[in-house]
Amino acid sequence: MKKIGFVIPWYGENIPGGAEMELRETAGHLHAAGVSVEILATTAKEFSSDWNVDYYKPGMDTVNGIPVRRFRVKKRDAGAFDAVNAKLMKGMDVSVAEEEAFVSNMINSTELYEYIAKNSSEYSFFVYIPYMFGTTYYGISACPEKSVMIPCFHDEAYARMSLFKELFKNVRGMIFNARPEMQLAERLYDTSDVEKILMGIGMDTGITSDPQRFRKKFGIDAPFILYAGRKDKGKNVDTLLKYFSEYRKRNGGSLRLVLIGGGNMDIPEDIAAYTDDLGFVDIQDKYDAQAAAAFLCQPSKNESFSLVIMESWLCGRPVLVHGGCEVTRNFVSESDGGLYFCDYFEFEACVEYFLKHRDTSDIMAENGKKYVEKNFSWDVIVKKYIDFFEKLEEKP
Q: Against a cut of 0.70, is the pTM above it?
């Protein structure tokens, strides 16, 4: 097998983002397993930076022992992009011309696409993540026969763009993080000639945690619900706060809500005395918090995976997820590792069940842990990647 070129808009050791972290970890573990990998990225810094600015120098770089090949960004018309993006975010229909303006005026690099077209013989495959960026669209167009996607699809307007529907049917392979994501792709696109695999995301299954260490460090002795992640409406944290407030009004008791992560949400006055917003904590404190919680609540309706769910199981606690998120609901159902809710009264019933059935909660957590170890440990994921690439090479 020749080199595997992972293509992403930006790449760096500490760049935030789920797809960015997935690529760093995947490339790193494949590299450690002896697979020849290389990162191909633009010189842009990250998602939140100016996409017209070359933050990094073009050319070869090395990050954590992995070669990174960077290419200058193509100058863009941000206004043209924003106009179409605003319509897509509202779920409005857009024309093909508007779709073309969208992809041509987001993050792009003409030099990157020329390199892929001219040097494709040096690579077995180019792996693109995530689906909606110019680097994926034009990169695939430069060499579709060697293109593999880790799309990170969501059920959103971007995924229904006609340009994507036409292009994605020509890729060699697609790698999915969760079963509902694969099912979404099969509904939206003609994938009859695309080799597909349900992969998931690799996890460090050897993490350790100490619930008493967390309680002592942060002075929290009462039972608590844990939320770990970005605190904003996009993650449906406002619903969690609203439901916790209603739960306290109806049930009282000593139950608390602990929030971990960045972002800002106004805590309602009536639950402020029962809510601990710890902000960013170090990774070990997060694991300890997950072990100390009565359960982890992941209220988001829009996830393509969920590392915190897997971590909670590995730390010995069950999870409560929103029934409106097909991905997290599917994980809970497949693993028998928790419960899900769709409205307040279901939320209240789930909370009461976890609090009153500790033994069953422990069994759910153990079910989840076994599920993670079976499906997402790094030795499993690395083998699946290698087998998948070899299968694609053997297939005409």
A: yes
